Amino acid sequence: MESSVCPFCHLSLPSSVLQWHANSHFEDEDKEAKDLELANQIQIAASSSSINVNSISSLIGSQTRGSYYHVKDGLISLLRNCLELEARHNSSITILSGYVDHFHSLPYVDVGWGCGWRNIQMLSSHLLAHRQEAREVLFSGSGFVPDIAFLQRWLEIAWERGFDPPGAQHFNCKVYGTSHMIGTTECASLFRSFGLRARVVDFGPKESEELYLSVPGSTLGQPVTQRNSVRVSGPMDRYVHHQQVLNKGRQSCDSSGKCSNNSKGKSEGPQVLVDWVWNYFSDKGLTVSGSSRVIVSDKAPLYFQHDGHSRTIIGIQVKNQPNGWRQFNLLILDPSERTIALEKSLKTNVGWQKLIKRGVHTLKKPQYQLCYIDPGIASKEELEELKTINSKFFEL
Hints:
Keywords: Hydrolase. By secondary structure, the chain is α+β, with helices and mostly antiparallel strands. The chain has 13 helices and 13 strands. Helix 4 (75-90) packs parallel to helix 11 and helix 7 (148-160) packs across helix 9 (184-192).
């Protein structure tokens, strides 16, 4: 995808939206009025809460841009070139998200706890570049991705408005200025507070279906709390451990979304997650036309959570094997990797596979979560429903 750099803020964007973005820099004379209008809208939408309109207006006006290493033409463009070259030799097919900026954790700033916030920044960069409706509502229509401190304040405002009460209770509605780890539900709460349709999907052993996949503040082996099978809450960076039952039937899904039980061993478990990701990006159907073996989807990246860490899935690759099997690789951006290292490996076409590809055999955790964002903006009635964070469960 052809990209250009904004001459005013130096943000790299698809050429198709550059003019719209650049024009937004000349609307500062109306910014104060627009900020107040947005704050009033938030107050109306949250009439049952006690949000301070002045504090929201102040936040809108003072938020600062999140810093990141700018890659000319974007990482996705570089990755697409490498995948195209690779496909000439192995006949693979790859589906990618569109433009995504990589936000890596910074030493002495957020290493060890900031991965969740960095993934939110990556998802935000995609939404701002590709979805007009998201640009209009995210972060007051600022057109840029805020730094972690301001994301923390936006999450606190989401809680004050009534999104994810269990998560808000765990953090006592306070994350600003802290090094608290967050996860999938916090990601969903933040995006939902702007009217975006963020969804959560759980993957784990059957016995986890009626249990919290995450107990706020829990450590491995602690007692779990009963929950409704579709309710989740709290930070997802630390999971409750459940011993997987060996040699039991597991569910496997093919690319058409059809699922069946099998007993081929525990390697089949992670395939359920990979099949889900393939179906998500291909929308359960894929037509390859022309010579291109790399397709850019209109799907947003996925927030990918497991025990102790989270990353961003930006696509998936499949290779047909001679025996009829299909080999899948998740394509991920990891906040723990340095952007400059990713850029160098992609430009030289050397070593990028180790940094970005993850095969099914690498998925060794007992539980995973994904957060994805459906298109469109929720109505006022739907927004009330989105305050409750539900999930769909798949057995590994």
